[in-house]
Design a protein that fits this description.
By secondary structure, the chain is of the alpha+beta class. Helices cover 45% and strands 16% of the residues. Strands 2-1-3-4-5 form a five-stranded mixed β-sheet, with helices on both faces. The model has no long low-confidence stretch (mean pLDDT 88).
Length: 224
């Protein structure tokens, strides 16, 4: 049965307008995004099928253009819309971090890093450049590596920090393996970067490791 024939109290769009987006399931939210279903499936039914096929919202948003376009009910236009939604969410969180003391809003920083790093198939090393009030100046992707290793050069990190006139930095990188636990190499790298940046009076507040929905802080572990 098409959604338009459902009782008004059960239609996702009407429920959102009446009670807010938080009350909707993942499938209902995706159905609003899809707008229409396909022959034999309502938008909600199609959304459930897609979530099952991809394994959830995170995997759907992380899918390649080819993977999205191969799914029934999607295509290049929907892929572009998905990427636009994802980028809008990143920018909202980045604006939030830039407007406030970043250290006072760790949840926003973690959400931003999950959106930015969690789905990457390769290791990425990111630096959040902060001003003297700990507000975000810029988020710089400094290095990329393979699935298991990335080469990070302290000299280049110092150069970028000085270029942004940063007073402090927060480092982050992802573990595509899905395990967020810091390795001994992560600890050694953090100390090397901290020592290099101390020479130019730039503080290292934290180094966060992202794996899926998990984010581990080396500062909280007492490793900085």
């Amino acid at each position: 049965m098409p959604i338009r024939d459902w009782p008004a109290t059960e239609r996702p769009r009407e429920r959102l307008l009446a009670s807010g987006a938080a009350v909707l399931s993942d499938a209902e939210l995706l159905a609003i995004f899809l707008r229409t279903g396909v022959p034999g499936q309502s938008a909600v039914s199609l959304a459930r099928t897609l979530l099952g096929r991809f394994g959830g919202l995170q995997a759907l948003f992380a899918a390649t253009a080819a993977e999205v376009c191969a799914a029934r009910g999607l295509g290049p236009a929907k892929y572009a819309q998905l990427q636009a939604v994802l980028e809008l969410a990143r920018r909202v969180l980045a604006e939030h971090a830039a407007a406030k003391d970043t250290l006072a809003s760790p949840a926003a920083v973690r959400d931003y890093l999950r959106l930015t790093l969690a789905a990457r198939p390769h290791e990425v090393f990111l630096a959040l450049m902060l001003d003297a009030q700990n507000r975000l100046i810029a988020a710089e992707e400094l290095f990329r590596g393979t699935l298991t290793q990335t080469s990070v050069y302290p000299r280049e990190v110092v150069k970028q920090a000085l270029a942004h006139n940063a007073a402090a930095v927060i480092f982050a990188h992802n573990h595509p393996s899905g395990v967020a636990e810091p390795s001994r190499a992560d600890e050694m790298l953090t100390q090397a970067l901290k020592s290099a940046l101390a020479l130019v009076e730039v503080r290292v507040h934290d180094h966060l490791i992202v794996a899926g929905t998990s984010v581990v802080s080396l500062a909280e572990r007492g490793l900085i």
